[in-house]
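Lay summary. Proteins are chains of building blocks that fold into shapes, and those shapes determine what they do. In this project we predict the shape from the chain. Here is one chain we studied, written as its sequence of building blocks.
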Amino acid sequence: MSAPSYAPARPHAGPTAAELLDFALRTAADPEVIASLPLDPQGRTWVRLDGPGGSEAWLIGWPPGTGTGWHDHAESRGAFATARGRLTENSLAVRLPSEGWQSLHLAEGHDRRRGLEQGSGRAFGEYHVHEVLNESPDEHAVSVHAYYPPLPLIRRYSRSGPVLTLEQVERPADWE
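And here is the predicted shape, written in a compact code that computers can read:
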């Protein structure tokens, strides 16, 4: 008599990037949630939200002329949606090595730029390198962001022309 066989339990895969985007768009369209964010004229503000399926979510206020700088969200997939104003995303259309480098020379043709008006958003996969900007000289922007798995770290980069350099690694304790 043989022992019964059991299929290994599949770990909870969490929400897909499309599901994170759906959450971000729905939340960005909720005027009560958006109005709950205190806005600072000088610096970005943020409030943590309950994201779907164990994801990490944030409501973020962007004063005129502010941005994130180049960064990635490591192994987390994510999405964000503009709730108020207009944001610009600059990104790289190439997957970078996840580790083992300090500086990379990027080939031509990998830069992407997109504007995200109020009510629009975008999803992205793991190791997505980008920067998000509020380029308005006089209007605050507000956005909703969601990540799964919850952010294990954020890598920050500097960029000089085609050269991308890893500058800093932040962990959750650094931004909570």
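What the prediction tells us: Helices lie at 17-28, 31-35, 172-175.
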